Amino acid sequence: MKLIVCENYEEMSKEGAKIIAEQLKNKPNSILGLATGSTPVGMYEELRRMNAEKEISFAEVTSYNLDEYYPLAPDHDQSYRYFMNTNLFDHVDIDKSKTFVPNGLAENPAEEGKKYDEAIANAGGIDLQVLGIGQNGHIGFNEPEDELYVSTHLTGLTDNTIEANARFFASKADVPTQAITMGLGSIMKAKKILLLASGKAKHDVVTKMLDDRITTSVPSTLLKTHADLILICDKACLNG
Asked: Which residue pairs, CB below 8 angstroms and at least 24 apart, start in 74-77?
């Protein structure tokens, strides 16, 4: 694992954007795995700037998002399809027909998960996977459990995660209690993983990323076994 410590959130966002920009310059038709949540917003803003100034292009990019609330329509203002359109896709030269998010209204979530993994494999696999990290160590919506799923699947959300996401909804009661998410196996197949963490609230879980142990009670620790993992965090996150 490569650790990059930044002064603050803004610097972390720019550092993350530089790594994605380098990926696109080296391979314009990259397959990107993308994440939502508050952490990558600043990075997406920087990528929008770089694209507007012709430093990078998304014209040949294909993207697959980590997860989607279930059941939630793609045009709902809290869906992750809506998030990606608003924060990135609507502002760069990407072909939206090549941007994929799990179907939050799938009649058969298990079949949706199987097809999603197959589509990624048929595309050649994810070149660079962007991840945030939950306060409880969840990755995507892979919550702390005794057992974790390998493939993309429907999962229940813990109260901790629902509470953390309630600020985006009218009330906690409006937060979906399930989501379709890539499994840990799906995530680990990415050739490179970029993990972003910011703020004092993530200090405890990032500390667990820096020791020599892995546990399903902190799913993010399994990422330590990946051959090409970059963790970018700010000083507030690292020092607590």
From this structure: 74/101, 74/103, 74/104, 74/105
What is the set of domains in the chain, with CATH numbers? Answer: 2-239 (3.40.50.1360)
Q: Which residues of 87-100 are buried (b: 16+ CB within 10 A; e: fewer)?
A: bbbebbebeeebbb
Cis peptide before 71 (omega within 30 of 0): yes
Q: What are phi and psi of 56, to 5 degrees?
A: -140, 160
Place of tokens 């399930």: 178
Residue 219 tokens, joined: 């799913």
Tell if the pTM clears 0.90, that is, is over it: yes
d(CA 182, CA 117): 8
Report the alpha-carbon distance of residue 94 to residue 23 in Å, rounded: 15
Contacts of residues 92-99 at CB distance under 8 Å and 24 or more positions apart, as own/partner, are 92/47, 92/48, 92/51, 92/58, 93/51, 93/57, 93/58, 93/59, 94/58, 94/59, 94/61, 94/63, 95/59, 95/61, 98/61, 98/62, 98/63, 99/62, 99/63, 99/65
Looking at 27-108, list the stretches that DSSP marks H as alpha helix, in order from N- to C-terminal side. 41-52, 80-87
Q: What is the pLDDT of residues 116-138, one digit of tens each?
A: 999 999 999 999 999 999 999 99
Cα 195 versus chain centre, distance: 8
Q: Which residues are catalytic?
A: 67, 136, 138, 143
What percent of the chain has pLDDT above 70? 100
